[in-house]
Amino acid sequence: MSETWRVNINTCRTIVAQSLGPGLVNLVSGSPADQAFWQDRTRAARRDVFRLDGCTQILSSLESARKGNFLGSVNAWMEIKKTLSGHTYPPMILMNMVFGQGKRLSPFTQALGNRKPAFPTPMRSIDQHNYLTTADIASFTAGLWLNHLEANGFRGIIVKWGDEAILPGLLWSVDPDRYRDVDGMRFVWLTKPTDDLAREKEWVEFDPQTHCMTFQYTRQELNSLRHRLAERGHDRSIGVNLGSLAISYRLMEVAEAVFQADVADEQKWVDWDPYTWIALACRDESEWAAEVAREQRLGKTGMRDLQARMPDFFQKIQQVKETFRLRYGRLPVIGVLDFGEPFWMDWGLHLSLRRSLEALTADSEWGVTLRELFGLPHDRDGRGNILVHSALPPGADVRDSLLVDTVITGDDTLIHGGLVVAGRHRSLHMPYGGCALFCAADKMMFNGPHAIAFKATGKELKLEQAERLAHLYFTSGRLEMRSSEALISYEGENYSLPVMGNPLSFEEASRRMSLEDNRLVENRWLENWSRQPG
User: Fold this and answer.
1) Higher pLDDT, 101 or 93
2) Do residues 504 and 96 lie in contact, with contact meaning Cβ atoms separated by under 8 Å?
3) pLDDT tens for residues 408-456?
4) Rg (CA), the chain
């Protein structure tokens, strides 16, 4: 798979280099501070992520009350139309939803100013002034999807979720008219259901001849999913829902007309997955009612809760379909695009983040692809190290490691299988590996495997096995916060009360960080970072 992934990475780079990326990108966030942050951040990265000519227009729009990503995309579309104000729509628009409380990435989320998709990667911008974020990398890979849909006749919007970078494991072909009459596009991975995938992912059913969606299934136990598939018949295929989607301008215009009042109602919110798609697939009230009853038997309450918020939701989806039919002489067509076995980079959870970072030091398919994605070399020195703009003292014992933009001065340094990015250290001890990201310390010690430190600075810092360490740079001073892979849940008291010996809860840290100016926070970190090593 790695060769196909690498070909697709090179295609993404070609799209940027030849300025074939989107002409308009919309970032959707939930606060004025986030709106300003993403506007500035994405403008700074647009030559790296979208088009080398810098001609991508960046629109950062605000969702002032929770809308869910279905009503939220309609709301953002209305903002886009105001910006275009009568101008012709570009062939394709990329809409990136950069939301997410990021609870499960605490305390790194708080260190990022409560912006989980802003997590920096080891990839530098062209001008070397910035490290590209996970949101940047996600948008970079989405350029391939957008280019493919446009080349095959689709006209509309890709709606994607903030920081998930996904590369297809297939090389897509071009047929200029293939998607001309397609009004929605689902992205899937064709694979057999397993216990974990059935429980954790939604599934899209489609006709294998037309590649048009016929239904969607909610997350459920494997036996339940198999029983449902048997009821539906064996003449259909299914694939894991990859989350993001595309909507034609035709369908978005009709959805706006039907749901405009609901968008304005601060009490109403609806997601695309899974219920909007299920409603679009149901032919009538009886099928919808049967789905509600089936979900209740599974012990789920999502459809019932949706009906409580919006009792007429299904009727309005039916109105969308009928209005579309009257305008265009047919019902909306929802296509399915097979990604094959995808390369899926999700840095929103501690475990997946750690596995991804550790892979950067290895020559596995995953590790090689990640380095290729970030533009990092693969050649190693005599000790198995990959050193990128980094300096080591002659006496240091560093083996099988990746160091990027790092300076270490102490001969007593010991790193085996470690990842260090933007480090300034006198003495760094990582005998079991681990990851030190954007840290600076006189002495830093990793006393067990799988630990990650992020933006931590100081004289002496220690991490135990699988521990997480971050420093938060408040107006009142620097604050140390820790977590661990052993902390599985970030709900309830694990979020609202102090845990892991922290001086305050993750929730309070988030609240305090929301009051800070992110530019001042960054300057405080840089000031502390610049004092090291020595």
Assistant:
1) 93
2) no
3) 999 999 999 999 999 999 999 999 999 999 999 999 999 999 999 999 9
4) 24
Contact criterion met (CB below 8 Å) for 418 and 361 = yes
Q: What is the DSSP letter of 71?
A: H
| Amino acid (one-letter) located at 346 | D
Phi, psi of 229, deg, nearest 5: -65, -40
Using alpha carbons, select from 173, 176, 229, 225 the residue that is nearest to residue 199. 225
Residue 500, Cβ density class (10 Å: 0-12 exposed, 13-18 middle, ≥19 buried): middle
Q: Which alpha helices (DSSP H) does 208-331 contain, by range? A: 222-232, 249-264, 277-281, 285-297, 302-309, 313-328
- In the three-class reduction of DSSP (H, G, I as helix; E, B as strand; rest coil), residue 356 is classed as helix
Report CA-CA distances (Å) from 216 to 213, 290, 339: 8, 14, 17
The whole-angstrom separation of Cα 482 and Cα 468 is 5
Distance CA 40, CA 265 (A): 29
In the DSSP assignment, the letter for residue 368 is H
Please tell me the distance from the alpha carbon of residue 525 to that of residue 530, in angstroms, as a whole number. 8
Quote the pTM value.
Answer: 0.94
Question: Does residue 461 contact residue 442 with C-beta atoms inside 8 Å?
Answer: no
Q: What is the H or E stretch that residue 274 is in? A: none
The end-to-end CA distance of the chain, in Å, is: 45
| CA-based nearest residue to 380, from 357, 396, 403 | 403
Q: Cα–Cα distance between 95 and 159 in angstroms, integer? A: 5
Residues whose CB falls within 8 Å of the CB of residue 187, separated by 6 or more in sequence, listed in order: 145, 166, 241, 242, 243, 244, 245, 337, 339
3-class DSSP state of 103: helix
Condensed to tens digits (0 to 9), the pLDDT of residues 278-292 reads 999 999 999 999 999
H helix and E strand count, the chain: 17, 26
Amino acid at 392: L
CB–CB of 25/79 below 8 Å?
no
Q: How far apart are CA 353 and CA 140, in angstroms?
A: 19
**Residue 163 — very low, low, confident or very high, per pLDDT cuts 50/70/90?**
confident
pLDDT at 129: 86
